[in-house]
Amino acid sequence: MAPAVSAIDDLRPLREVIAAHGLRAKKSLGQNFLLDLNLTAKIARQAGDLTACDVLEIGPGPGGLTRGLLAEGARKVLAVEKDVRCLPALEEIAAAHPGRLQVVQGDALRIDPLAHLTPPVRVVANLPYNVGTELLVRWLTPSDWPPFWQSLTLMFQREVAQRIVAEPGSKAYGRLAVLARWRADAQIVMDLPPEAFTPPPKVSSAVIHLTALPEPRYPADPEVLQRVTAAAFNQRRKMLRAALRGLAPNIVAVLQEAGIDPTARAETVSLEGFCALARALAR
To answer: Which domains does the chain have, with CATH numbers?
Structure first.
């Protein structure tokens, strides 16, 4: 009897790969594996035409999304994986796609992927829950813009995805929404139920697609804007004059200069308002 193969390539189904390599998902690494390869190929398609792009993938695990990206024609995939247990499974995929998959073992927060990538670059990842938000903020706030990436197609807990696309005045509106809208167009493009994963997480997930703008919507220093939004939303129930008083001794005057009511709360301030505030603080 011939060995089973998957629907998108000639490699073994992921359940067999995981069993063969003993790849039980580790909660400490934020791992939840997607085993349906038709689903991983669908996620890869949300990133658009990949045939002329290098793709950066963070946390590939046993390689479900990696295989989807390669099946959808990615020119090259750079997969950064912290868990050494996953490397043999990823090497099997690399052997089946000569020259198109490079695996780097290490912590995505510490590795500079640019030495291994040729533009144009797109990022596509089922991000580990414990580093996803920090990576997103880093990708949205480099000192130089445009960034190294054309687009980000990322899976998050649905609650996090909703925070990224939230509008002012809503409960979900916060720092992620401000930073995302400042330099990108963002939309939720897929929802995934817990049962799509092994092991099933306690929450639903969503795929969000962000396209980099040629330049930010409003001028602001990224470090200052990040500091302002972090301070404002860390104490979102307080009036801004109280939440931001650690940023400047004359914060009331600075807020007024930016055209913001000092008694307002962070969730009511628009992106334009936060950028004006960042400029006023920088002065």
So the answer is: 14-212 (3.40.50.150), 222-282 (1.10.8.100)
